[in-house]
Task: structure prediction
Amino acid sequence: MADDQELKGTTGYLFEAGMLKRAKRSGWWIAGVKDPETIAEHSFRTGVVGAVLAMMEGADPAKVALLCLFHDTQETRVGDIPHIGRRYVTAASNEDVTADQVSAAHPTVAAGIRAVVEEYENGESLEVVVAHDADKLECLIQAVEYREQGYQNVQPWIDSSLARLKTESARQLAEAALGMSSLEWQKVYLG
Result:
């Protein structure tokens, strides 16, 4: 049974995670996107993409979705540092930020979240590879959507995401995304 401080520490982490619903993915501003997706929106679809990729690759979909869900939670503390910004900024590791975030949480919750982030950052399992591919594939899909909205400066995000994909399923889905409209899925239902 958790004591009052552990319950408050765990609940505090949940409130902090809610900040991701308001925090924008800042790299898109470089491409000129005026109102980019939030970190939570990115993490949600990354989890869905990860589960789908896991099914295609023979990995554990639940584990991949969990890895994807927690992969950017540290950004409540350090923000979403765009790729180019990382050349100039030294930030704490995601593992260290996570340890601080959950330091007051229930011990089993803290240990569980730390283990998920540690695995995402340092693991080599198929699930980790798929989770990283999900992150890149989601970025590519988002860039395709922004390009359709008229933001032409997103091509570097498409190119770099495509180049970093490791699994065959992710590469195939990326190629499919690049060859279709983001609303093409409606044709099946609308005729």
